[in-house]
């Protein structure tokens, strides 16, 4: 029976490994994304179609570059469906999604009421802060829930 | 195997952990599995070949050459077999067979 219990413990531990890999993500990606958000939105203040086209291409290339780097670094992709995630991480993701939604409203409000530079500044700071918070909460979960997972 | 749900192929500790990781991820690459499970390349290759030939995992190589990434996914039959196996393990703990 001990072997059976050991096997189940091994399964539970191995199941957490993909999430622990995500917790190892470097924190610098969030300021990098925040900076890209700022440059992207602020570029619209120049009011030049060519600049906007370059900004759009550069922004999406940048986001794709960061995502690709993270995927290669992790070597594993967590399930696309958060319903398959551990419950605690689902809560972290829901809080992040809510903060993103609020951020989008605040950013749109800012660049509509003030200008694109101010909107970019809010977007840069907001997404840096919520992204970093998201990663730190994920890390705390990993330290608490999965200390035995080998990495 | 004593119980109907237990699967001899998955029951090996290495393959059991591989299936557990793949069951809780969209995909995992060779390097991640090797480093997480602390296996040698040849050993992991052998385990993955066994799982692949039984149709429990699918393999995808991103590009040929030095930068090649080998990525594995659990298949539907693989997930079903793994879930049956873990359910059978739980059943063994909850209702241990009476000594004869």
Task: Write structural notes for this entry.
The complex is a heterodimer of chains A (151) and B (100). Chain A has 151 residues and is an all-alpha fold. Chain A is 79% helix and 1% strand. Chain A is built from 5 helices and 1 strand. The longest helix of chain A has 30 residues, at 116-145. Chain A is elongated. The mean pLDDT of chain A is 90. Chain B has 100 residues and is an alpha+beta fold. Helix content of chain B is 55%, strand content 13%. A 3-stranded antiparallel beta sheet of chain B has the order 1-3-2. The radius of gyration of chain B is 15 Å and the shape is elongated. Chains A and B meet through helix 1 and strand 1 of A and helix 2, strand 1, helix 3 and helix 5 of B. Strand 1 of chain A pairs antiparallel with strand 1 (27-29) of chain B.
Tell me the layout of helices and strands:
The complex is a heterodimer of chains A (151) and B (100).
Chain A: H1 2-23, H2 29-43, H3 49-74, E1 76-77, H4 87-113, H5 116-145
Helix pairs in contact in A: 1-5, 2-3, 2-5, 4-5
Chain B: H1 8-11, H2 13-23, E1 27-29, H3 30-37, H4 41-53, E2 57-61, E3 70-74, H5 76-94
Antiparallel strand pairs in B: 1-3, 2-3
